[in-house]
Amino acid sequence: MPENNNGILENRLRDLAERSYNQNIFTFSSFLSLGEQDAYFKLERELSYASPKLIGGYENAERVVVRFGSPEALGYEADTPIRCIHITPLLEKFADKLSHRDFLGALMNLGIERDVLGDIKAGEKECYLFCLDSIADFICENLDKVKHTNVKCTVVTEKEDFPEEVPEELVIQVSSARTDSIISKVYNLSRSDSLNLFREGKVFINGRLCENNSKQVSIGDVVNARGYGKFKLASEPSLTRKGRLSIAVMVYR
């Protein structure tokens, strides 16, 4: 994100925090990308007086909203301003295979701004879209085609209706618990390709930009490599007989 845009975001977050604290209300940002979340984390201590919390609609969401205000301090719980929409083909038999890009493109063609849209969990012919509640009705009323496929939109009202994201467990062996070594092994990348991800600012650990390719990762850390996906370290490294480290990771495809 350009530096001037980060400045605008920082001022917006400060304003939301101040309004929440002074007026004793919950306030919410729009959806933040990983780059924007990194800008937020640099302000996190400054904004801590307003009890900020990141929410994305489901656990380990990539795009998240910042909520200011806490139920403990305000004495009530706020409705989360995030809705989940299930987008499915009208006639599955004749539906195209649809990708994340296809769904996002169809939404952009409606003139919708990216910051009101959260994660898009795309399957082969359907997707679950997270969005701000302010745009949910508009999407349901106007999104009727993705690529060449006629679709329908249904707001998911019960949490149980959203399929649980099941990661793939992968056990890898690396020479060290460095971030670049683990990324290379998980995504079968060469060392140079892995290093390029750091140079291009595409690696995030727990939502924070990571520019140090030798940074050691720990159990529970979530690593996102833009363009490849994300994974979570599920176990502490253990030493093999050959002196390498064996690590279990949960890979989200």
Describe this entry's structure for a reader:
The protein is α+β, with helices and mostly antiparallel strands. It folds into 3 domains: 3-74; 82-161, Alpha-Beta Plaits; 168-252, Structural Genomics Hypothetical 15.5 Kd Protein In mrcA-pckA Intergenic Region, Chain A (Roll), CATH 3.10.290.10. It has 7 helices and 15 strands. Strands 9, 10, 11, 12, 13, 14 and 15 form a 7-stranded antiparallel sheet that branches. Strands 5-6-4-8-7 form a 5-stranded antiparallel sheet. The longest helix has 21 residues, at 3-23. The model has no long low-confidence stretch (mean pLDDT 92).
Salient structural properties:
253 residues, alpha+beta, Alpha-Beta Plaits, Structural Genomics Hypothetical 15.5 Kd Protein In mrcA-pckA Intergenic Region, Chain A, seven-stranded antiparallel beta sheet, five-stranded antiparallel beta sheet
